[in-house]
Design goal:
The chain has four helices and no strands.
């Protein structure tokens, strides 16, 4: 997968999260979660795009660390929604699967970038 494909995949994941949250009831407990999960999912996409324009290997690794954190936070909020009500589990399962796949790709990229960066020192 090239960087453009991963950019698109992260953007589409954030959009999927937004579309999912539109199904949640308009009550306080879901409003708080909705705000958080939209911010974290869109942040992972935006920060990956920024990582692709990094000025150095260290900058790339730092920005990818943010992507990792934001994706992990998104997964937390998905789990949290199930904690509020397990009726959302069928909707959340594919979102969690995609989030975990993206997280694995990002972590692998960070590990590779760190190895390559240490070889160049």
């Amino acid at each position: 997968m090239n960087k453009r494909e991963l950019q698109d995949r992260l953007k589409n994941y954030a959009l999927s999260i937004i579309f999912f949250t539109e199904q949640l009831p308009d009550v306080y407990k879901y409003k708080v979660v909705t705000n958080q999960i939209i911010r974290s999912s869109s942040s992972s996409a935006a920060n990956y795009r920024a990582a692709c324009r990094a000025r150095s290997a260290a900058d790339f690794i730092a920005k990818m660390g943010i992507v990792e954190e934001e994706l992990d936070e998104t997964l937390f909020w998905l789990e949290f929604i199930i904690g509020i009500s397990d009726k959302w589990e069928l909707h959340i399962t594919p979102l969690s699967k995609e989030g975990n796949e993206l997280l694995a790709i990002i972590v692998s990229s960070i590990v590779t970038a760190k190895k390559n960066n240490s070889k160049n020192k």
